[in-house]
């Protein structure tokens, strides 16, 4: 009985099934398949996207706890992104094409921090300045804190700026916007 229990523990142990990202993801199609197995999420992607080669250091463990973060990082590094089309289903496409799709929109201001995901998924942040005249100056500063392909749109005189970038980048951008959103000198 002890022997059977020991063998069951050995064969059911997560360490036995542990794999590295290199083993699971030699290309994006296999990586997507691994994500489907680990999360139950469904993905739609084109063949050219699936053929993107992926590489990791040998000691990079494949774990369910970090799979979403690492997978979205791989997509971002490959110039790709995933878009949620419905609960549990995603479309993987080039990041520039994704920016024209219906992305999550998070409305925020100085006092209301956005609830950004812990991934590299694309998100649009709408920030409303307490002092609308700061929008023009902030637009230039924001560009230095965003990723190269970020989309930034300022609505003239309204004090609203829209920024589409990865959720990770938008966390930094939001903190920077908060620090800029202070009463200008000489204003009553």
Secondary-structure blueprint:
Layout lengths: L1 H11 L1 H4 L1 E2 H4 L3 H12 L2 E3 L2 H4 L10 E2 L4 H11 L2 E7 L2 E6 H4 L6 E5 L12 E7 L6 H11 L5 E5 L4 E7 H14 L8
Parallel strand pairs: 2-5, 6-7
Antiparallel strand pairs: 1-3, 4-5, 7-9, 8-9
Helix pairs in contact: 4-6
Question: Could you please describe the fold and organization of this structure?
Answer:
The chain has 188 residues and is α/β, with parallel strands linked by helices. The chain has helices at residues 2-12, 14-17, 21-24, 28-39, 47-50, 67-77, 95-98, 135-145, 167-180; strands at 19-20, 42-44, 61-62, 80-86, 89-94, 105-109, 122-128, 151-155, 160-166. The strands form 3 sheets. A 4-stranded mixed sheet has the order 6-7-9-8, covered by helices on one side. A 3-stranded mixed sheet has the order 2-5-4. The model is unreliable at 1-18 (pLDDT under 50).
Shape: elongated
Order of helices and strands: HHEHHEHEHEEHEEHEEH
Rounded mean pLDDT is 82
Question: Helicity range of the residues?
Answer: 25-40%
How are strands sequenced across the largest beta sheet?
A: 6-7-9-8
Determine the N-to-C terminus distance: 82 Å
DSSP strand tally = 9
Q: Which strand-content bin applies to the residues?
A: 15-25%
* Biggest pleated sheet: 4 strands, mixed
Instruction: Note poorly predicted spans.
Output: 1-18
Rg over CA atoms, rounded to whole Å, is 21 Å
